[in-house]
Amino acid sequence: MSTVKLFVLLAIASILGVGTARADPPSRSFVGNFIGNDATVENYLSISGGVDRAQNFESLYLEKTISSDASFSLFVGYQRLEQEGEDEAISGFSNLGLGYKHLLLALPANEFILTINPTLELPVGDSRVSETHPRAGSDVLFQKGFGDLPESLAILRPAGIEGDAGFDSKVTGARDDLLDADLELEYSLGYLDANVAPGLVPTLIRNLTPHLDFNYAQYLSAHNNSSAPDLELTPAIAWMNDTFEINLGAQIALNRASSGTGAVAFVWLLGVSYDQLLPALGWTPFR
Predict the structure, then answer these.
(1) Nearest by Cα to 9 from 140, 97, 181, 180
(2) 14-43 pLDDT, tens per residue?
(3) Mean pLDDT of the region 173-183
(4) Is the distance from CB of 146 to CB of 111 less than 8 angstroms?
(5) Is the dihedral angle over the CA atoms 143, 148, 149, 152 positive or is it negative?
(6) Strands 44-51 and 264-272, how do they pair?
(7) Are 188 and 209 in contact, with CB atoms under 8 Å apart?
(8) Do 211 and 184 meet the contact criterion of CB atoms below 8 Å apart?
(9) What tens digit of pLDDT does each residue of 179-205 get?
């Protein structure tokens, strides 16, 4: 699919979504963009990173709402990679990623939201660790809580599922199409205490949300990249309140394609909903 066709389809989807989207967020806090992206439109800043046998990496993500159902975001990372047979590691900044998030559908009573996220990657990073051509693509993001389950299944109401699926490809140069998807299962102890079993959860662990992330990526048409699927599983736990998030996990390679720099990586994230600290930063130029 050409880049022009891609953005035409995204524009149509956004227009169609205006009539059905609602600004109300889900009634729970989701873990969000620990490994994949987050369907919630929000004012959010995070730094994250990881380390394994051959590399360590850090990144910064900033999202700013421009209306009740849309936001812009930017992403940049830094990577240090050990090379076999080389005395010095390669390090440098990754490319600049830009995104536009638009809420298509929100069903607060069912704790469900659906969002589209067109993205553009600009080749401004270090060419030793980054793509040398611009890339464009899009993701479809969703979140679903299970607070609408019947009383007989009340113990499952704190559970939630969220994920994304998308693709991107080079705008210039040899064709290079990447397909990726993320799926996250989580269980909020805070939701359990507040809505299902008041007083059951000790205060010390009330803000914890254990979660399990599954990640898939594969080049479908690649010039220099492997076409084998990259599969990873990440058991993790998040501590969250209305303002801050701390997330820690172990990313486990499930096949050979995902274990090139190590079978296991320690990953982390520190995030803040900055409009909770400074309400003026929650200002939006459009209604």
Answers:
(1) 140
(2) 333 333 333 333 458 899 878 778 899 999
(3) 89
(4) yes
(5) positive
(6) antiparallel
(7) yes
(8) yes
(9) 999 999 999 999 999 999 999 999 999
Question: What would the mean pLDDT of 171-177 be, rounded to a whole number?
Answer: 85
Residues 63/141, Cβ–Cβ less than 8 Å: no
Instruction: Provide the pLDDT for residue 227.
Output: 76
Helix (H) or strand (E) holding 67: strand 55-67
Please say whether the beta carbons of 167 and 179 come within 8 A: yes
Q: H/E/C letters for each residue in 73-128?
A: EEEEEEEEECCCCCCCCEEEECCEEEEEEEEEEEEHHHCEEEEEEEEEEECCCCCC
Per-residue pLDDT for 166 more than 90?
Answer: yes
Radius of gyration of the chain (CA): 19
β-pairing, 244-253 with 230-240? Answer: antiparallel
CA–CA separation, 85 and 80 (whole Å):
16
Q: Using CA atoms, how far apart are residues 29 and 245, in angstroms rounded to an integer?
A: 10
The answer to whether 116 and 138 have CB atoms below 8 angstroms apart is: yes
At residue 263 the predicted structure's pLDDT band, cuts being 50, 70 and 90, is confident
Q: How many residues appear in the chain? A: 287
Exposed e or buried b per residue across 129-157, where buried means at least 16 C-beta atoms within 10 angstroms of its C-beta: bbbeebbbbbbbbbbbbbbeeeeeeeeeb
Closest to 114 measured CA to CA, from 187, 214, 244, 16 = 16
End-to-end CA distance of the chain: 33
Q: Which of 281, 242, 238 is nearest to 33 (CA)?
A: 238
CA 169 to chain centre: 19
State the average pLDDT over residues 267-277: 95
Among candidates 99, 98, 97, which has minimal Cα distance to 125?
97
Sign of CA dihedral 119, 124, 125, 129: positive
